[in-house]
Amino acid sequence: MKNTISIAIHGGAGTLLKGQMTQEKETAYRDALKTALIGGYEVLEKGGSSVDAVEKAVIILENSPLFNAGKGSVFTAEGTHEMDAAIMEGNKLQAGAVSLLTGIANPISLARTIMDKSEHVFLAGDGALGFAKINGFSLEPESYFYDELRYNQWQDIKGSDNFQLDHSVKKDSKFGTVGAVACDKEGNIAAATSTGGMTNKKWGRVGDSPMIGSGNYANNKTCAVSCTGSGEFFIRGVVAYDVSCLMEYKGMSLEEASNEVINKRILEIGGDGGLIAVDAKGNISMPFNTEGMYRASKSSSGLEEIAIYK
Q: Which of 40, 41, 191, 193 is least surrounded by Cβ atoms within 10 Å, i.e. has the fewest?
């Protein structure tokens, strides 16, 4: 009996109003999601690991200026880019994470290198950059991360005390965090998440994306989860681990647990957003409590979906 292979990806959740999206832009997002989905799925199809698959999918999303990660990262209050990423595998519970990272095109690959080649889980700032250089990562110039839409987003609120989550109501903006979860033919699962944070953020603010258990988590006994949304609430709700907990200790299914967390628990503390999750049988769940969430999934049982709105 061959295991079901499956993958799900997201490109952020938020106030995605259908009337405010041009057909051209919607097509561009759908195409970008499809490219990442197929890229990750092909890894699984060829017998590759779930970790390889989620890294591959997230790299493709990081390389697209459409999403707030890697190349499309938003501007901080200082006019720089500070990126966060995390990756985790469910077999041995190995994980790698990086935060406050500048100049690296693919933060998810650095998180993977931290997991594979260091004795640590989480590196940040200059130290993370030092580790990157020792491990052969090259630094991109500022111009690599420059995007006109992102720059204009920042100009709107620059010099103020406001910051803007990607999915807040200033529309026609590009949306948030990217992530992927996958189950390979061995039944091993993995999750990866990457983000450029919030526009005009100050003081080295870090969201949930690089935090193991909050924005990213994987455990073969339960599920692999990648989150997107209002990071402060996802940190306080320990959202990714909460889904796992409900499965492990309450015996809930993947679908029940992820819906309980997104449509009840996170709402009760005032948070909004969504998540993608997969279990070791290849089941997928993608709940969100916002107007929309850029998402896509594909499995060997015939499922294939690319969607933006409810």
A: 41
